[in-house]
Amino acid sequence: MSAGGSGVFSAKGNFGELTHVDILTWRKRRLFSADSNHVATIQVEKSGMPDARATLQKKDGKWQFPEKASDKSFRFDAERASEWAQRVTNLTASGFVEDDAAKKAAQLQLQKPLCQLRITNENGDKSEVIVAENTEKAKGLAQVVGSDTIYELNQFDLKDLVSPPDAFRDMSLLGVDDSQVHKLSIHTPKGDAALEKKGEKWVIVTPAKLPEGFVFDESLVSTELRRLKGLRAQELGKDKQGLGNAKSALWVELTDQAGKKERVTFSAPDGDKTFVKGAIDDHIYVAPAYERRRLEVGIELFQKHAGSQFGGSQNMNSLPPALRKQIEEAIRKQRAGG
Amino acid sequence: MTKGTLIAVGFCVLFAVVYALTREDKVQVGIRQLSLQNVEADQVDDITIAGGQGIHLLKDKAKGWLLELPGASHQLVQADDEAVKRFIDAAKGIKSSFFVTELREKFPEFGFIEGKLTYVTLRNKQKPIWDLEIGKPAQGGAALCNVCWRQRSF
């Protein structure tokens, strides 16, 4: 080490960190060089599977899915498709297959690909990637056609690549305009709840007798309607999947001013999932079980939170009741004093 | 005050000013010797980060930035242009640095320990633009800073 007659300096910024990053960070890991804004088509062709080929096409800046355009049972979600297209175009390897023995094994696996991806740019440039699975390492393998480099992909990316056409499916369960909803009904195995809009105000219709100490927070109705409108399934249920025992089902029904009703029904939770049937189509979908569990409280969904009168601090609800009471009392005194 | 006294006072003031300026100048010259040359992204065509993992990046006119893989084969693969750009941008930022110390006995405190150092050299046509030793992250009074560095002689 040569002193160089110099002293020690310190500097702002991330230069120090960048001198210590892993070599993988310095290596180009993106599989496609295309700029996602200038991609014209993306095609994924799966080997030996139903819906083997899915092609996204961009027209006037919007993604379309012509292969399913005439399929009435398929609701296309251009936004989800666009997000998928972004992810695929920016697909980044988690590592590389380097040594000769591993490369030979990977080549054999790539001869039985899971899928092939083809991207065409607006200028006509094309690139193709072959994707396979390394089952031993639980990783994906990918190779750009015409290149020797073999990339490793993580499981999430691998799953994502073979997810079309479901990746482009609209997973919403209710089509109603939440601002036009006039009546909201919740049926649970333990009892019913119903709210109706009278003029500009929401009133509770059912139950006739409210739980003791219940304070209605009207603002929670629109919050709930927005939440229901935004409800999305995780995936499509398997063929012949049913909702199970009707007695254990929970449903929410929304009625608009014209009297049009939309109902979404949840099956009894099955582990961390629940099966859902919306009014929007005939499919049975899979949603997280907590979407049903939070509705099981019925009318208490609209119970004013004790914390909400104290600066909307809803975290108060998670405190032990005695402690919460103490804090609320202290805040009340402080406010009275101030 | 007599005319002679005024002249004497005037000389004293002038002397003090000249002394102060000369003294400050000497300190500034000392710092200037340690200041870094400007880094222009298009001038850098070779980056070495020695010590640690050993990173060597080369700019090829046709292929852009290439990364030399470790091992005897010295295989060159395509580098991530964005990562290189981020590094050169960060290197530009290091110019606005705070002087910490020039006391040699203090150097180990800042991570300047033989065998544990990281060396960074940016080159243009094989000539170093700058060549630094990187110590450990700055702490305490230099909380706003995150790296200690020293210039190597070349």
Description of the structure:
The complex is a heterodimer of chains A (338) and B (154). Chain A is built from eight helices and 17 strands. With 338 residues, chain A is α+β, with helices and mostly antiparallel strands. The N terminus of chain A is likely disordered. With 154 residues, chain B is α+β, with helices and mostly antiparallel strands. The longest helix of chain B is centred in the first third of the chain and has 32 residues. Chains A and B meet through strand 1, helix 1 and helix 2 of A and helix 2, strand 5 and strand 8 of B.
Biggest interface and residues each: A-B, 30 and 56 residues
Oligomer: heterodimer
What would you call the shape of chain A? globular
Spatial arrangement of strands, main beta sheet of chain B? 4-3-2-1-6-7-8
Strand order of the largest sheet of chain A: 4-3-2-6-7-8-9-5
Number of helices of chain A: 8
Distance between the termini of chain A: 65 Å
Distance between the termini of chain B: 59 Å
Strand tally of chain B is 8
Contiguous low-pLDDT stretches of chain B (5 residues minimum) are: 21-34, 140-146
The run of helices and strands of chain B is HEEEEHEEEE
Unreliable parts of chain A: 1-5
Question: What percent of residues of chain B adopt helix (DSSP H or I)?
Answer: 25-40%
Radius of gyration of chain B: 23 Å
Instruction: Tell me what portion of residues of chain B adopts beta-strand conformation.
Output: 25-35%
Rg estimate of chain A, integer Å: 27 Å
Largest beta-sheet details of chain B: 7 strands, antiparallel
